[in-house]
Amino acid sequence: MFKLILRRVLVLIPLLLGVAAGAFFLARLAPGDFLAEMSLDPRISVETLARMREQYALDLPWHTQFVRWLGAAFRGDFGYSLSCHCPAGSLLYERIGNTAMLAVTALALALLIAVPPALLAATRRSSLADRALAVLSAMSLSTPSFLLALLAMALAARTGWFPIGGVHSLDGASLPLPLRLGDFLRHLILPSAVLALRSAPGFYRQLRAELIETLSQDYVLTARAKGLPERTVLLKHALRNAVNPLVTMVGNSLGALLSGALIVETVMSWPGLGSLTVQALLGRDTNVLVACLVFAALMLAMANLLADVGLLLADPRAAGQTDVDKQGGVLA
Amino acid sequence: MSFSVNRNLGWGLVALGGLMLAALLADFLSPYDPIAQHRESAFAPPARLRFVDAEGRRHWRPFVYAPQTRERIYPLRLMVRGAPYRLLGVISCERHLFGVEEPARVFLLGSDALGRDVLSRLLHGARLSLTLAGAALLISLPLALLVGGLSGFYGGWVDYFCMRLIELFLALPALYLVIALRGALPLSLPPEKVFIAMVAVLGVFGWAGLARIVRGATLSLRRCEFVLAAESLGASTGRILFHHIWPNLAGIVFTQAALAAPGFILAEVMLSYLGLGVTEPLSSWGGMLAAAGGVHQLAAYWWNLSPGAAVFAANLTFYLLAEGLREYADPRLQSPD
User: Fold this and answer.
1) Given this model, what pLDDT does residue A325 score?
2) Which of residues 18-77 of A touch B (CB under 8 A)?
3) How far apart are CA B240 and CA A305, in angstroms?
4) Cα B186 from Cα A229, distance rounded (Å)
5) How far apart are the C-alpha atoms of A308 and A321, rounded to whole Å?
6) Which chain A residues are closer than 8 Å to B164 by Cβ?
7) CA-based diameter of chain A, in Å?
8) Are B46 and B109 within 8 A, CB to CB?
9) Do residue A330 and residue B259 have CB atoms under 8 angstroms apart?
């Protein structure tokens, strides 16, 4: 297993380098930069601009800039954010934590939402509940996260039960620790619920199909024939074996989860990596944008690695299969 | 093999036909010009079609009142004269499917902050979203077939190179990739160039995931006896791809296209929402959602969320299509549930 992890981490290095180079190249492709906007400001002289351009190495060709950037990035320096007047790295670290928190909570919530109905639907096939859940899952698969996020915001505005956007209340910093944690959780509920509702129907459908498959296996029949209570059969024999493909599916859906997080963060003003990326793009803050993209790729790769390790722990037979290309071409 | 169209596919095709018809005939179906502002009736709620007037008389034809008055009724008329347009881009025309006499207005889905008819804007936004998704598919599908097909067919270093390229595109979560690609273009573009830019961004964004699936399928078809037979008969690579491999991929490709379409629509909505796509005064679903304003406005004027419902309808359509196509391509999947 350590060999597997080591190999995956080694493969990661050229991939991240590629993403960084690609992001750098794309960001420099567009005409104009942050300083181009400053040149419209009559208070800033041409000489100052030229000096700044030299200071930030913006006058060099993109590959030279990239090599310099890379050298600095290895030392943990992701350049200077021109719009925030601070190092890009310091902007990122807090945001990454927020996004990870959002994604992990949403994932847990999605599984909580998906598993009980899947058990119900798989044991009572073609029942009214099963049909209703099929319609419900199709509907919620089709609901765009935009709409959900906006509806959640409207709900928060109408009822006042939840805060509108952000991670902390205005006086959050002055609260004692337990209250501050509660405050954070109160802010977390709506965004993670919205994100969870996007992922849950996919998990539900997968788990239901797997459970139906497992319940028709001979060992389930044996367990029933032994006279085990139905609950034990369902939870210990069927569910335990149906979980493995679900772990794979969770792993495959992580990209979509981070994508969805970007929308939720932007619409619900959750200060995460996604909203920072959007801000960096709108503000032409190239250093921050490139760093954001690299960290998004890193996050996805780490999440995928964790999912593979999880699968290995859940199902040791999978050891030979993890290198097989995953065939999940999900776009968003 | 059964050639009867299954239920999902049938409904999906009907819904897609409806959406496309609505987009194609947007000018005719919408009662007003999508950019015409009726400032005196900003944020008008969805029009109430009445049958009983203020004096309690019944009318057989639905009618509306003019704003702030109950003196006269304005019955809903079909094929009314309105803002001139070009039907299908060619026939010059000024008839609209329905409408009412001035000064009354019929905003079936209400109006936005500038008093523009939400329904008209929604229909024109559908035209934009569907055209963009279609154009993006027309770019990414051939690209995916070519790269995936060659990669799976040749194997070796071609495959290695193509797969690394695909992995590079899939290394970023989808919407981050859209942002990275959009970052390569100027932030504000003139309206006539925005469309081309969006097609380019969405087309490049979608191809990698599709290519990987095409490659996998090609790889397994490559070892099939009919392909080996064609090869040993001396068929060229192009001929094998065209006549033997791609026709067999049709089912997978159409299913994947239907699965990918909501992703394209979502990406378009996101870019327009951020003001990086089609911008005002042109109507797009994302732009409408952005213009719907802050949370308090949204809570009060809920009908401005209708573009979200439109995306929902489009997603549901493609979901049905994808499910139906999957069953159609592989009838063994058809199960009683």
Assistant:
1) 41
2) 18-19, 22-23, 26-27, 29-32
3) 38
4) 65
5) 10
6) 18
7) 87
8) yes
9) yes
Chain B, residues 289-328, CB within 8 A of chain A, namely 289, 292, 295-296, 298-299, 302, 305, 308-309, 311-312, 315-316, 319
How far is Cα B85 from Cα B96, in angstroms, rounded to an integer? 10
**A284: alpha, beta or left? (left if phi > 0; alpha if psi -120 to 50):** left
Contacts of A14 (CB under 8 A, 6+ apart): none
Q: Rounded distance, CA B227 to CA B225, Å? A: 5
Identify whether B191 is preceded by a cis peptide bond (ω within 30 of 0).
Answer: no
Asked whether residue A323 carries a pLDDT value surpassing 60, the answer given is no
What's the token pair of residue B98? 């329905």
Please give the ipTM for the structure prediction. Answer: 0.82
Cα A31 from Cα A41, distance rounded (Å): 18
Helix then strand then coil, in percent of chain A rounded to 5, is: 75, 0, 25
Tokens of B222: 């490559």
> Are B218 and B152 spatial neighbours (Cβ–Cβ below 8 Å)?
yes
Distance (Å, whole) CA A297 – CA B173:
7
Tens-place pLDDT, residues A36-83: 777 777 787 778 878 877 777 676 777 787 888 888 777 777 777 777
Answer yes or no: do A142 and B319 touch at CB < 8 A: yes
Considering the entire predicted model, what is its pTM?
Answer: 0.83
Nearest to A265 by CA among A146, A184, A128, A144: A146
Length of chain B: 337
Are B295 and A157 within 8 A, CB to CB? yes
Mean pLDDT (chain A, rounded): 80
A329 has pLDDT over 50: no
| Residue (of A205, A203, A194, A183) closest to A105 by Cα position | A194
Q: Which amino acid is at A249?
A: M
Smallest CA-to-CA distance from A44 within A29, A61, A53 is with A53
Write out the two tokens for A247.
């772990």
Q: Write out chain B residues lying below 8 Å of A146, CB-based.
A: 266, 269-270, 273, 286, 289, 308, 311
Out of B206, B275, B292, closest to residue A331 by CB? B206
Q: List phi, psi (to 5°) of B63.
A: -140, 170
- What is the C-alpha separation between B164 and B161, in angstroms, rounded? 5
A297: chain B residues, CB-CB within 8 Å = 171-172, 176
Distance CA A211, CA A234 (A): 9
Closest CA relative to residue B66, chosen from B37, B105, B31: B105
Taking contacts as CB-CB distances below 8 angstroms, the residues of chain B near A274 are 175-176
Distance CA B213, CA A330 (A): 10
What token pair was written down for B191? 């309206």
Task: Express each pLDDT in B17-58 by its tens digit.
Answer: 998 888 888 888 888 878 778 777 777 778 777 777 777 777
φ and ψ at B203, to 5 degrees? -65, -45
By mean pLDDT, which of A164-178, A313-327, B136-150 is the weakest? A313-327
From the list B174, B274, B292, the residue facing A332 with the nearest CB is B174
Phi then psi dihedrals of residue B73, to 5 deg: -100, 150
